[in-house]
Amino acid sequence: SESRTAVLLEPFVHQVGGHMSMMKYDEHTICKPLVSQELSFYESLPLAMRQFTPQYKGIVSVHLKKDSLGNLNLIASPSLQTESCTRLDKAIGDSSVTIWHKCKWAASTGTGSEHTLVKWSHTQLTKTFKDSCPGKMLLRTDLQYRTDSLLEDANGNQPERNSYNPWGLHCHRQHLNRMSSKHNENKLHEFLLLENVVSKYNYPCILDLKMGTRQHGDDASEEKKARHIKKCEQSTSASLGVRICGMQVYQVDSGHFLCKDKYYGRKLSPEGFRQTLYQFLCNGNHLRTDLLEPIILRLKALLSVIRKQSSYRFYSSSLLIIYDGQEHKENTAPLDNHLHFQRTNRTASHSTNHSRVDVRMIDFAHTTFKGSKCNHTTYDGPDHGYIFGLENLIKILQNISEGK
């Protein structure tokens, strides 16, 4: 495998939720630390569910490596296990132009194994975000990543015009801290390669929803189980079967992304959840009513599939709703060909409705099903907690669509 190019991993700039760091492998591929239970799910994925999950692309070995400047990087080493993916044509030494992953590490006082993060500069952030979002520059000169409160203050107030989502950087920093404190540079870690489901969008608006009325896996300790049950009881997970875990929505009036994190989502009442869902479909100027029907249709199609999946329990998994913040102008046609216009417009509408939005299930580290390689309880019938959440989500979107 000597001819295979080592790939410098970067934090995935459009990660809006979760706690595990998602890394960008190439334009169409992300990777995340391998969890055997999640791998088992992807390897035995029911055919009907494939349109609602990221494409599984294989496994890659990853290790820590310091460059000549002492910056700690994550390097992927494509192996024979890795299925065919478009590779980043970058050498390891090219780290000076990809800054999000390139955090300077300095030994903190005390033990030499602990490291602290040195802040990165605005110009470096600008470069990476311009690469990830063609079009307008999304960053303002006063923007800085803060390590204290990520998106809002103690009173729940937050700057409404965050121009990027810092959640992915927060997860990345924590992940590198854990890896560097526990393992040496030569230690190989296995990562899953998955489709980057937002790669086709210029301004990806993403809603991350934690689905179901139960979040703890069968393997959870009593302490963790109690913690997750409490989170569900105190949030819309119990009342609606769904809660907001993260969000970014492009605001055309300001040219920035508005962001919400999981702590914001946990505090919402059912009415607050409905208002945030409405906000997710607002671009700063108007409600994107054109998206409601395709999203509802896609959610109904998913609901139909989930109802047929006996023994599956999607504990702690998320559902992503995605659309492009850049509106597509409707096709126009000559006035003297009215029938042709009607026909082509109808065809265009039918073909673009479903590509304009996307709905994907992600995060299957605690998913269990009959025949799974991981030994867990076997359940009968479909996941009623997940179905309850989907039904309520569809109902709320239908009410928004009807102007209620």
TrEMBL record:
Assigned GO CC terms: cytoplasm; nucleus
What are the EC numbers? 2.7.-.-
Pfam families from the entry? IPK
* Molecular function GO terms recorded: ATP binding; inositol hexakisphosphate kinase activity
The answer to whether keyword Magnesium applies is no
The lineage's top-level taxon is: Eukaryota
Q: Which Gene3D superfamilies match?
A: Inositol polyphosphate kinase
Which GO biological-process labels does this protein carry? inositol phosphate biosynthetic process; phosphatidylinositol phosphate biosynthetic process
Q: Which residues form a coiled coil?
A: none
rRNA-binding recorded as keyword: no
Enzyme type, top EC level: transferase
Q: InterPro entries from the xrefs?
A: IPK (IPR005522), IPK_sf (IPR038286)
**Alphabetical UniProt keywords:** ATP-binding, Kinase, Nucleotide-binding, Transferase
| SUPFAM superfamilies the UniProt entry points to | SAICAR synthase-like
Family indicated by similarity: Belongs to the inositol phosphokinase (IPK) family.
Under which name does UniProt file this protein?
Kinase
Species of origin reads: Ciccaba nigrolineata
Lineage of the native species? Eukaryota, Metazoa, Chordata, Craniata, Vertebrata
